[in-house]
# Entry
Amino acid sequence: MAKESTEYREHWGREGFAGTGVNVTRTHHSPDYISVTGPHAPHRLNVGAVALPERDDAEALPVAFHAGRTGVQLSVSGRAHAMPFVLSNVEADEVHFVQEGELEFRTAYGTLTGTPGDFVVIPRGIPYRVRPMAGSSLSVIVETPGALRFDPSPTFGSGLRRAVIGEDEARDVETVLLLKSFDGVTRYVKPTNPLATQALLDGPSPVWKLNLRDVPTDDNGPPVQFIASPGRDELFYNLSARHRRRPPIHNNVDYDELIFYFEGPGAWGGVDEPGMLTCVPKGVIHHGPSEDVPEGYYAWMLESRCTLRLTDAGAAAAELMETDLYGPHATTEGFR
Ligand SMILES: [Fe+2]
# Structure
């Protein structure tokens, strides 16, 4: 438990970094807790620790580890073989963050390659096929019911790259098309290949990517946002190392805060494993490590207005987290 001061400054705030709030001082460190029982508990998990059938079975799909009532869902993919089908998510936009490996995303609206640190955005209803280009891979998929847009704040010259129509796919190939909805997968057998595209006629491809390293950090303000959904329901930020005083103890009452540590070399407080995701549910007072780490590290944050819960697969890989430096909590009693 933190004992560095007898006066703690604390912030209660609305709308994440964008709303109103109030500051108080207390003589106790309010993020500390002795134990917790129930679902609304801070936790962490390394996405690489989730059991992934895709490693051995090309027909398998990614495994969800967080899900919420509005349809927001986070999954982990460990694809080791090309998809033997084409997939289209009819409920949500998808952001694929590539942690390890090199993946070809071939879609009906162009092709691009995802490499470590890339956010690959595939909107709703876009048929696509993923193929690992070199060995195994690891990626995190964020699904949002609202249409995601590149929405930098503060603005920066984007390193955004659109999918391009490349070499045409063979047209006359019988193809399995899976439509993914809230209640499972519907399997179509098509006489031709949905990915065979002659030309893109109007406007840019709706499929694009951006690398985390191309999102700047700002030493003076809140973290830099780069993707948003309607109503600011889901927001993506760069949360990498920067020269700034430690954030105050705070209560983010409108958003769950999920922070994903991509790579070092520096440790971010109690987090030093690539692929580690920390989650502080909304309304849980917390502190969080300093971002001023001279050795540097890369991390990103998802703010989710939808309250997220661990799935059974997520809970099997998760541990309770303390809310000071985001290390493991001393007890796991009552967590699952
Ligand atoms: Fe926070």
In short: The longest helix spans residues 312-317. The two ends are 23 Å apart (CA to CA). The pocket of fe (ii) ion is lined by residues 250, 252, 257, 286, 288 (CB under 6 Å). The chain has a mean pLDDT of 95.
